[in-house]
Structures are given as C-alpha cells and as structure tokens.
Task: structure prediction
Amino acid sequence: MNENHRQELIEKMSLVGFYMYDLRLFLDTHPECHEAIEVFNRYACMKKELVAEYEKMYGPFTQDCRNFDEHDWRWTAYPWPWEGACN
Amino acid sequence: MNNYGRNQMNNRSRQGNMQYNRMNRNNCGCDNTPRTVDNCGCNDNRNDNRRNNDNCGCNNARPADSCGCDDRNHDHHDHDHDHSHGTEGCNASRYDQLSGMALAMSYVPWQTFCKLYEVEEARCQGTIFKELDLDFMRGCRS
Result:
C-alpha cells in the first residue's frame, strides 16, 4: 500500500473534479455547446477511471462506491482531512 | 477568496447570460467570433448595435454632458445650468466617464468556449477559462 500513490490519486481526482465543476457552470448557461459537452464527457470519464483505480486499491472513495467489501469495512481506514490528510 | 467563491461569482455573472440565452437558444456561442471593443463576440442577430456612448438603448437619447436629473426645464446645451442639489448634486457625475449611460443598467458579454487552462493551472487560478482570470481579482486571493 503506497500512501504517496494514494495521495497522488486524490490530488488528480480533485483537479479533475474542479475542472468538471467549472465546465458544468459553463454548460448551465450554454447547454447546446457541443464542444463543451465533449470536453466535460472526457473529464467525466477520466474522473470515473481515477475513482475506479482508487477504490480498487484503497477501498471506497465515496459512499456511493459499488464495491464495498462485505468483510472489510475500510471507510475509516485512512486519515480524515482534519487528521492531516489532503494537505 | 477561495476557488469556489470565485466560481460562485462567475456563476452569478453567467446567470445574467442565462436570461439572455432564453431569448435565443439556437446558438451556444461557440462561433469563436473575436471579441473587440466594437464587437461583443455574439452573433449579429443577438448583437444590439444600437447601444453606444450616445444612446443607452432607451428611446430617450441623453447627451454625455447631461446629469440626467429630472429637471423638465433643463436645457441640455446649457452648460452653465446649476445642477447643485444641496451638496455635491448632479455636478459630480459630469466627470464620470460613464455619465452618458443609463443608470442601473449593466451588461455581461456572451462567453465563448475558448482559451482553457490545463487542469493544474485551472485550480490554481480558480477558473478553467483564461478570459475569466482577471487581473483585478488577484488581490482577492488568499
């Protein structure tokens, strides 16, 4: 288990998540901009792949995770932000 | 101001666009029309070219040297007219560069989908759009 790699994945998800957030704001007022939709979908796929990679290696990233291990509840296995994570 | 605060501001500006967009949703603004002082970047069928420094868009043209006060006997060409209303009065607006424009009217140019930052820089700058990364916002960043 590589903590640096885990943090790296979290950082990437944060970056991509911010990009999607701003694209969504643009699309709210430009709903027929196909170019923006295409870019949004590209980043959405990227985010999905990052989350899948994270959850495969480190357990659930959000409570919407589809693959909670029934024998190993890992939701609290890593430090929370107020415990020094995500710095 | 954090990134999300900045985007909330951007979003408020876009809400203005949203109302405008309802007037004509057949074009998303992706046409990459260069934006200049004389061209806001929107299509000609939406562009209200009637508005300029001499005409605020209403039917009552108001010259730039007018204070706009409601003096029905006011002669627009009488520069010696006393506009004082007790304190600073109307004279203060005579030196306003926007004094020819109608009060309480604002505009938000139609944004086009262009000039995107890369992901790392976008988060640092608080926007994915280079055009929204404005110099005067830099002092607000924490």
In short: The helical segments of chain A are 3-29, 34-58.
